[in-house]
Amino acid sequence: MPETLRRDGNRTFLDEYAPSAIEHGATIYDVGGGSQPFVSLEAKQRFNLTVVGLDVSSEELAKAPEGIYDRAITADLCKFVGAGDADIVICQATLEHVPDVAGAIRAIASILAPGGKAFLFAPSRNALFARLNLLLPQGLKTKLLFSLFPSTDDGHNGFPAYYDNCTPRDIERLVQDNGLVVKDRALFWMSAYFMAFVPAYLIWRLAQGVSYGIRRGNAAETFIYVLEKPEMNGRS
């Protein structure tokens, strides 16, 4: 397959996009990171970062490495109103788990300081695995996930997913509605869910091709966005 169809979005986010988010002395909000914050304690100390964890679960926040969060906020992202003090917002594989992505994007806009940037990674609602996720009962799909991918049964996976407004087109509309600017976008066409069984892989690729013919870029499996909140005087 062409390389463009083999790039993994989450791996690209971790290796290429998110590292550029770390700036010396920055205030970083890790939205939905919970027990697995994006920034390591070593990186926090080396770059003199202020790291704020925001998660709906106080239990998840409490499981994070000691000292990683300067402040831990237990709140529903869909309803949260920020103080406009973040230089960087990291939102990795979180948007698909919130029931109101419009509220989440509004919250992210309120968290960012003028000139601040948000780095988002999420799977798309139009991916075949997402459609199946929405159709299957929570208990059954969790059992299938842990059976097919035993390494995911580590207490950090299997959370309910809604995929509300979770497509590139929807994200761009909500970004514009909240006064943010898209600085970069990357679409990806790879996921690991169907790789273990050749017939499933072939069916998935066929379905993906049909979906692309109808939806074009909106048929992507996953996507990355880098957003910026314009300066008060309109410069970015």
TrEMBL record:
BP GO annotations: methylation
Pfam families xref list: Methyltransf_23
GO molecular function terms listed in the Swiss-Prot or TrEMBL record: methyltransferase activity
Keywords from the UniProt entry: Membrane, Methyltransferase, Transferase, Transmembrane, Transmembrane helix
InterPro entries noted in UniProt: SAM-dependent_MTases_sf
Listed transmembrane segments: 186-207
Name listed for the protein in its UniProt record: Methyltransferase domain-containing protein
Organism: Croceibacterium selenioxidans
